[in-house]
């Protein structure tokens, strides 16, 4: 079991899972570009030993594959998984007490351990001493991408009531005074927001500690959706096989295991512009006012190493995070939402925009199910649960005549399109919350949602090739069975859209029977949209707002319920959308030196 991040790096290197880059690398775009290329080639973790402008080395791609992550946690994985299972199903411990003795001991050993003073290995440094990594060309500055942001409940202080979350931290740029101010970007539904609200009510600043590095389990703990009552620090100790050690300095919690610690305060009402920043939807999250943190002190331990990742259009390293979380938490969602069998946040669509789910239909077991009933109750529960509530599109089906998996995405979507009644089974929620990073809605955090529910027998056969009636029509391309992409002129405004869609639906009606094409996607580039399932999922569900961008052939509203014969989603880029992430071509050429045949990363070149 590792004592620190350095031991993990040495272990990975010994086992051929880490490469050192000794040449000086520029943290402005170069390091991120190298990381992205290595990740895309399914390559190893990378230790940048010589970061321009900083004495500290940096490491990335630690969690680049699930296999590497499980290798890192190989000695504690099974026991941690068992303990999380017990939290989800405590009755199993009562039924088989001797079977779970080891789990109880492991949990006890994982309790945080308070120390009396700061380790002698910690030295004070400044923000400007850190590796100030600038990831994408139009980013607002340097960001911390793997922070562990620690805050305590002002009403119930102490580590067991603390929150540890991974919230974006801007270190430089914009209006921030270097070494004195940094930006904290945290979204709705986050634990730190609850703490700040309480501090504001008390009229006091909120003390915050940002841990960077330490045992890899501490990084993972900051993104884990843990069962109620299981603290992130306890989880970090369990997965590390070593108690989370900490002390207090000037009233701030200091992780003794972290490589770096930044402490400071958030004062009521103090914000500054944060961003833009390339994000996991594949676009820039734009500049907005977010809490300002006044820096108190910055610490670095001896031989500190700066971990980072790069976020962009999926899949990226955070995709592996999601897979790890799914493996560790297992059936947690079944415990939380009765009747649900499976929920899958679709990574290719940026996670939050699109959910696939499987539920039960048990309301009338004495008769053949004719339409979704319990599925709609489950859908409301899904859209009211934690981070799942940020979703825009939810496709939910009842598993009936054959096994169904939400992870077989084309098969699952086809199953729903075959069975959905387009006049009955589309359910909207308008003027509601969506992901902060999603700019397809009507404002920051605001937009709409839609539920597509399906059960029962097949209602239609999906076309498996482009119908002859659509040949040559708007550069039509078959995306997948039943889904056709249509290329339209550039989106101008929603006033013009009404006319465009009236003309399009009229033209489609004249084509005759298109019942085998229940879904049309209007887009800027039908060849791109149809080139891969990943392109379709990404462009369609990140570039549309259900209430504004869904239309239909022969659409009508009856008793407030909207339906149609063929569904149309307008997935064109809109003027209010954030720009997509595009690598800098000059930097791409510059880093090629690391991938030449004789270079350190030459074995990754195709």
List the helices and strands and how they pair.
Layout: H1 5-14, E1 18-21, H2 30-40, E2 45-48, E3 58-60, H3 66-72, H4 77-88, H5 91-95, H6 101-109, E4 113-114, E5 122-125, E6 143-144, E7 147-151, E8 163-165, E9 168-170, E10 181-185, H7 191-202, E11 206-212, H8 216-221, H9 232-240, E12 245-249, E13 252-255, E14 260-274, E15 277-278, E16 284-285, E17 288-301, E18 306-308, H10 317-329, H11 332-336, E19 340-345, E20 354-359, H12 374-382, E21 393-398, H13 409-419, E22 426-433, E23 446-454, E24 477-480, E25 483-487, H14 494-510, E26 519-523, H15 526-531, H16 533-542, H17 546-549, E27 550-553, E28 556-558, E29 561-563, E30 566-570, H18 585-590
Parallel strand pairs: 1-2, 3-18, 4-12, 20-21, 21-23, 25-26, 26-30
Antiparallel strand pairs: 2-3, 5-17, 6-9, 7-8, 7-11, 9-10, 10-17, 11-14, 12-13, 14-17, 15-16, 19-20, 22-23, 24-25, 27-30, 28-29
Helix pairs in contact: 4-6
